From TrEMBL:
Record-given protein name: Nucleotidyltransferase domain-containing protein
Organism: Bisbaumannia pacifica
A Pfam family recorded for this sequence: Polbeta
InterPro entries linked to this entry: NT_sf, Polbeta, TA_antitoxin_MntA
SUPFAM superfamilies: Nucleotidyltransferase (SSF81301)
Length: 131
């Protein structure tokens, strides 16, 4: 499947998922330097973040299954990054390199970008001026 077809398939799959704020493609597939055996790295933010770790795992596994069906690949070739638990480095990659797949015109995406850039700026200032 060509990359453009894959993006269409991902966007369609994500459009039928309930409870998703936004999703982005990151990693080698987003940078367009993927090998045939490269995995799919999808970063997501869910609307209801007050779920247990087990419920979050279950939700992410269901998402992997749906995405695998649409991409015609095995679920173990898809990595879901839950942005609620992501550190600043991953959030920066999502903000700077990510290809938005769902929710890119909505307020949660804009808030995510704003918060990430704010945190990055703060981190850089600390590195430069902290004693």
């Amino acid at each position: 499947m060509a990359m453009q077809e894959s993006l269409v398939a991902l966007r369609h799959a994500l459009s039928i998922i309930d409870g998703l704020d936004f999703a982005t493609l990151i990693g080698s597939r987003a940078r367009d330097d993927a090998r045939p055996d490269s995995d799919w790295d999808i970063a997501v933010q869910w609307k209801n973040n007050n779920t247990s770790a087990l419920e979050t795992l279950s939700r992410n596994e269901r998402l992997k299954s749906v995405l695998a069906q649409h991409l015609a690949c095995e679920p173990d070739t898809i990595d879901i990054i839950d942005l609620k638990r992501a550190n600043l480095t991953i959030r920066a990659v999502v903000a700077e390199e990510g290809i938005p797949l769902a929710g890119e015109d909505d307020l949660p995406w804009m808030r995510f970008l704003s918060r990430t850039w704010h945190d990055l700026e703060h981190w850089y200032l600390e590195q430069e001026y902290a004693a």
